[in-house]
Amino acid sequence: MHQNDGPAGLRPGATIHSLVERQAELAPDRTAVVAGADTLTYGELNARANRTAWQLRELGVGPGTLVGICVERSADMIVGLLAVLKAGGAYVPLDPGYPAERLDFMLRDSAVPVIVSQHRPASALPPHGAAVLLLDDKLPDGEPTTAHPAENPPVIGRSDLAHVIYTSGSTGTPKGVLVPHSGVVNLVTAQNYVSITPDDRIAALATLSFDASTFEIWGPLVNGATCVVYTFGGDDLSSLCEQVQRDAVSVLHLTSPVFRLLEPGHFRAISGVHTLLFGGDSIRSHSADLARESFTGKLVHLYGPTETTGFATFHDVRSTTGDTAMIPIGGPIANVHVRILDPAGEPVPDGRSGELYVGGHGMTRGYLGRPELTAERFVADPFGPVGSLLYRTGDLVRRGEDGALRFLGRLDRQIKVRGYRIEPGEIEAAFTRHPLVQDAVVVARDDGAGDKRLDAYLVPAGRPAAPDGDPSAVREADRKLVTELRRHVTDLLPRYQHPASITVIPAVPLTANLKVDLARLPEPAEERSLTLDTPVHPRSTVETALAALWAGLLGVAEVGIDDNFFEIGGDSVSAVQMATAASRAAGAPITVRDVFRFPTIRQLSALTAQVLENGGVLTAAAPATTRSSE
After folding, report:
1. CATH number 3.40.50.12780 is the correct assignment for the domain at 2-408
2. Helix orientation angle between 601-613 and 541-554, rounded to the nearest 10 degrees
3. With contact defined as beta carbons under 8 Å apart, do 494 and 98 qualify?
4. Quick one: which of 258, 213, 169, 232 has its CA closest to 493?
5. What DSSP element (H or E) covers 495?
C-alpha cells in the first residue's frame, strides 16, 4: 500500500457550503466570483445563495434531495450550485449542450423533483414533471421576484451527498456517480499537490458535467480565493492564454489534450500562473519537457476517475527522473491511499504491474440506483480497517524505482479520448438502436498526434446484394447509411463520443473464443464521411490548403468544400488545432469561434477573403451558410 496522510486541512464532517459560509464571515468584501462583467463578493454570493436556498426549501428540497441544475455559465451558475447545497440537496448537472435524449435519460434516471435553471436553457429541456426555479427571474431593478431571507438556512438534518455526475456506461447506459461532501472537501483542502490561498484566482473552464469542475469551483471558494468563471472557452488557445493573464489567474487546470497543444508562446502568456495542473489522459515526456523549459511555475500531472472525486494521485513534473516515455501519475493526494493488486487480490511487488485500487477520503458512494455495479466496483479493503472500501479503477499500473506510479493502460475496454472517459459499449448501443444497424464495434486508435480517435464499424441490417453485379450501388447505400447514422448519434451522444470514422462491414470478425477480433477489423474507411451529394472539390489555393489541413488533421482521404468539419470527425480540441494551422495557411486570422460558426471550407474560405479585404478585420456580413448553385 502507498498512503498519503500528510497535512490536508481536512475538517471532519465539514460541508462545502459551511466552509464557503465561513469565508463569507471572515471576509465578506473579498471577491468570490468573477464571470465576465459580473463580480460577486463573498458576502453577496452567500446572501444570494441563501435567498435561493430558502426558495428551494419551499419547493421541498431537503437533506439528500437531488436537484437538477441546467444553467448557462455565469455568476448565477455558482449561486445556484451553492444554494442547492445550502438547502441540503445534491446537484445533478444537466448540460444545456447535451442531446435531448441524453438529458431525458438523466432526468428520468435521477427523478429530480426540482430543477434550477434560467429561462433559455429551461425552455430547451425535454418534457419533465419537475418544479423549475429560474435564477434569472428578477424584477426590473434586478431584485429577485420573491423576497427571501439573506441569512444562512438552518441545518435540518444531514446528508453527505454533494452532487451526482453522470459518466459513460459500459452497457450503453450512463451511470450517476454519487459524490459526497467529504470527498470534495478533501480534494480542495489537500495541500500536498496544490496550495490555495485567499490571494489566488482560479480559472473555472470545465463544464459542470466534467468532474474537473469540482476542483475549479469549490477549490477557490472553500479556500477564500476567487473563482474566475469563463463563459466561453476563448476564441483560440492563444486568446484564452492571454485572457488568463489579463484575469490574473494564478492556478490553472487544463485537460491533457489542451496541455499538449501549448507552445512556448502560450507558456509565456500565462507567466502569472504559479501552478499549472493538467490531467485526464496520458502525457508523453516530450510535452512535459517543453513545459519545463518554457514555464517557470509548478507543473502537476493529475490522475483520477470520477469515482475518486476527480483527482486521486499527482506527480510534480519537475521531479521526473529516469528515462520514461510517459509522465508518471505519481502518488496519492492527502488522505488517499492506493494499492496495486494482482488478479487474486494480492499486493504486487514494486516494478511489477497490477490493477490500481484507490481508497480513503476521496471515495464516492457508488452509483445511483445501481447496487450491483456499485458492489462490483467498490470492494472491501482486505488490508484496511473493517468496513473500509476500495474502488477498482480497472487501470493497469506499476510503481517505479522512484516510487512513482506509471499508468500502463486499461484492463477493460474503457478508454480516454481527449480527456473524456468513454465506454465504447455506450456508443455501440447508440448505433444499434437504429433499425438499419445489426451490430456495431467501436475502437480507439492513435491519431498520430499523441491522442486517440474513435473508429466505428457497423454491420447493416439486411445488407442488399449488389444489383446486376454492380458493387457501386452497395457503396452508395453505405454512404447514405453512414450519413444517416451520423445524424442519428448526433441526437443521442455528446460530441466527444462521436466517432471520427464509420466503416460499414459485412460481419464482425470473431476469435475462436467468440470475442471481437480487433486485429481483423479493416482499416477505417478512406471515404469522406459523407455528404449525400457529389463532393465539390477545392477551387482555389486557399480551399486546397484548407482541404489538405482537414484531411491530415482528421485522418480522412478526401475532403469536399461543403463537408462539415464536425460531421467528419472534428471536435472542440481539433478545432483549436485547425484554427491555428488554418490561420497560417490562409494568411488571415481564423479563430475557434469562426470554425464553429463557419464549419465548411467554402464558408471559411469566404471568411478569409473578407478578412483580407478589410485589412485583417471581419467587418462584412458573415459568409453564407448555404451552398452556392453550380
Report:
1. yes
2. 130
3. yes
4. 169
5. none
User: Which residue from 302, 298, 351, 296 is spatially nearest to 327, judged by alpha carbons?
Assistant: 302
Q: What global pTM score does this model have?
A: 0.77
- CATH tag for 541-613 (out of 3.40.50.720, 1.10.1200.10, 3.30.2010.10, 2.60.40.10): 1.10.1200.10
Burial class, 468, CB count within 10 angstroms (exposed 0-12 / middle 13-18 / buried 19+) = exposed
Where helices occur in 111-199 by DSSP H, the ranges are: 119-123, 181-189
Query: Which pLDDT does position 145 carry in this prediction?
Result: 53
Whether the Cβ atoms of residue 18 and residue 348 lie closer than 8 Å to each other: no
pLDDT digits (tens, 9 = 90+) for 554-606: 766 678 888 878 767 676 667 777 887 777 766 677 887 788 778 888 888 88
Q: Judge whether residue 144 has pLDDT over 70.
A: no
Task: Give the model confidence (pLDDT) of 62-71 as tens digits.
Answer: 999 999 999 9
Percent of the chain with pLDDT over 70: 84
Gyration radius of the chain's alpha carbons:
25
**What are the extents of the domains in the chain?**
2-408, 423-520, 541-613
Calpha distance 550→562 (Å, rounded): 12
- pLDDT attached to residue 197: 96
Are 23 and 221 within 8 A, CB to CB? yes
